[in-house]
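Chapter review. Work through the record for ABC transporter substrate-binding protein before attempting the end-of-chapter questions.
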Amino acid sequence: MRLFALVSGTFLIFLAACGSIENTSIKLGEVTRSLFYAPQYVALEKGFFEEEGLDVELQTVWGGDKTMTALLSDGIDVALVGAETSIYVYAQDSNDYAINFAQLTQTDGTFLVAKEQQPDFEWEDLKGSSFLGQRKGGMPQMVGEFVLKQHNIDPHNDLNLSQNIDFANIPSAFASGDYDYVQLFEPTASVFEKEGNGHVVASFGEESGHVPYTVFMAKQSYMSENEDNVDAFTRAVYKAQNWVEETDPAEIAEVIQPYFEDVDLDILTSSIERYKNQGSFATDPILDEEEWNNLKDIMEEAGELPEDVPYKDLVNTEIAEEVINN
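Structure tokens for ABC transporter substrate-binding protein:
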């Protein structure tokens, strides 16, 4: 009896200990709150991170420079931000620069929105117009300039280009200002259409091709010291990517609506459908070399590439490849 009681007591203690095990905490900082990042919110809401033993704390940092500052100062562990920011940091001779390890979006996420309806829009129509652009050096602006130049439009000479509005204030500035065109992400573009404040006439994502637009990255030191965490994080992202790829936009919208409480469900659904149709959501976390080179071409065309950073220096695909193969 004593032996039975001892064994039973030990077993109960073991169960209690197992029950008290906590998930590993990861502080994740996103550069902005965007429907463009739908698979990330799916990973959070569907419990994919928790399944991998992670407790992911999401915060919106608002801006690429602020996001990288938070990452480099250990305010966050992982950043979701444009891959170009890792190049900027590397070029500053950082001793502990950021490594891109999992890609989330693979096209530009902005749409060209006109103040007036233009059913027969041609890119040539932009010449001489008042264009509200994005922040200089950021991916939206660089991709925008790249696409415009492909259509023989010099953004600095053929347009009345404005770049002095903060990212968060661009939609309201366009709605109230005397601008003809603007670059907008979803769901803002669809909201503008619904309210009659603008009309989508073209997609920069379709025009620019595949590019590592938004990527999860972490410092070298964090990745070397927390390899298991990064592996688990990437597995959760890949689960979410597969789920988004296989799921109807309406169901995706319902899952991520808590992150966009002020947006109607029908707008969320149509926005997700628009992104899915143009292949904006990456279907796996691998950032390939062709995409990296396309990014550098875009940066160089915009005059923002500080140096030719080798793919192997700033991109780690081993984790993503292992996740996919297993």
